[in-house]
Amino acid sequence: MARIVLVHGIAQEQKSADTLEAEWLPSLAGGVRLAGDAALADTLWRDARPGDARMAFYGDLFRKEGQQGGADELTPDEWALAEVLAAEWLRNAASSASREADRNRARAELDLLGGPAGETQGVRAAARPVLNALVRLKPFARLGVAFAERVVVKALKQVTLYLTDETIRERVQARVAEHIGPETEAIVGHSLGSVVAYEAAHRHGRPLPLLLTLGSPLGLRTVVYERTRPQPPSVPPGVASWVNLADRDDLVAARPDLTGLFPGADGVLDSGYTVDNGAKPHEAAFYLAKRRTGEVLSRALTSGGQA
């Protein structure tokens, strides 16, 4: 059991709980130190003790032993869902990207995609124009088209697997539940991990001072929001404070303000904050190192959730 439970996002299958703790905790401590709580910062990293903060690791559940290259290939049903998710990311960029050039490009790509459809061969071919449009935007463009597409497909694969495969979902939730107990004061989730953390908070049921979601896709209505558990979505019972942070260029984070989507949000969900993560808008370490993240965590752990 841990005082702070950390929940990672996609594409971590080659890592471990230990390596991710070593990556996350210095950044989290740095954010807390920027917020002025040096004592808590030292507790999180320099003087860390067992049980202070633990990573709920589930990346290995997405790793298929003995497969090369095609391990991240999507099934026809997954390609269909991936097309919807990729299109929603593109619409998010068209409305929210910080650079006018990216907004204009995304709008132009959407106009092209909305035009007359040419002949396609199967759902993968139907999804490819949306993927191609995505990888022409920052931050994907700087990776190169081929590599960016692999990144996008891996993201889509793992998100769709969690949302559609009940065995995967239950195994992931079991990993998180191993670290949650009466002493847990905060659950911090990034990316897909924010969806996992949100659902874990529902299952936890007991008082929880803080749920902190970073770069969260919970606002992606047609793909993620309508597939969360339980339905209809609502603020998890027992959560005293839920804070959601997003970089406006983080395509995964559909919208910074989730308050209208979750009943019970008044006085609990604070989702109007936007952070700037620079050239890597979805980077977990950059979210964790922000002063605002440190303020939220410090206040929750010292005042019982009034973040």
Commentary on this structure:
By secondary structure, this protein is α/β, with parallel strands linked by helices. The chain has two domains: 198 residues, Rossmann fold (3-Layer(aba) Sandwich), CATH 3.40.50; 89 residues, no CATH class. Helix content is 44%, strand content 12%. The chain is built from ten helices and six strands. It has a six-stranded parallel sheet, sandwiched between helices. α3 runs parallel beside α5 and α3 crosses α6. The chain is globular.
Total beta strands: 6
How far is the N terminus from the C terminus? Answer: 22 Å
Task: Round the Cα radius of gyration to an integer and report it.
Answer: 19 Å
CATH class type of the largest domain: Alpha Beta
In CATH, the topology of the largest domain is named Rossmann fold
Backbone structural class:
alpha/beta
Element order: H for helix, E for strand: EHHEHHHHHEHEEEHH
Mass-distribution shape: globular
How much of the polypeptide forms β-strand, as a percent range? Answer: 5-15%
Main beta sheet strand tally, sense and closure? 6 strands, parallel
Quick summary:
This protein has 307 residues and is of the alpha/beta class. It contains 10 helices and 6 strands, in the order βααβαααααβαβββαα.
What structural keywords apply?
6 strands, single chain, alpha/beta, globular, 10 helices, 307 residues, Alpha/beta hydrolase, Rossmann fold, six-stranded parallel sheet, AB_hydrolase_fold
List the topology elements.
Layout: E1 4-7, H1 17-34, H2 38-44, E2 53-56, H3 76-96, H4 100-113, H5 122-134, H6 145-164, H7 166-177, E3 186-190, H8 192-204, E4 208-214, E5 239-247, E6 269-275, H9 284-288, H10 291-303
Helix pairs in contact: 1-2, 1-10, 3-4, 3-5, 3-6, 4-5, 6-7, 7-8
Protein name: Alpha/beta hydrolase
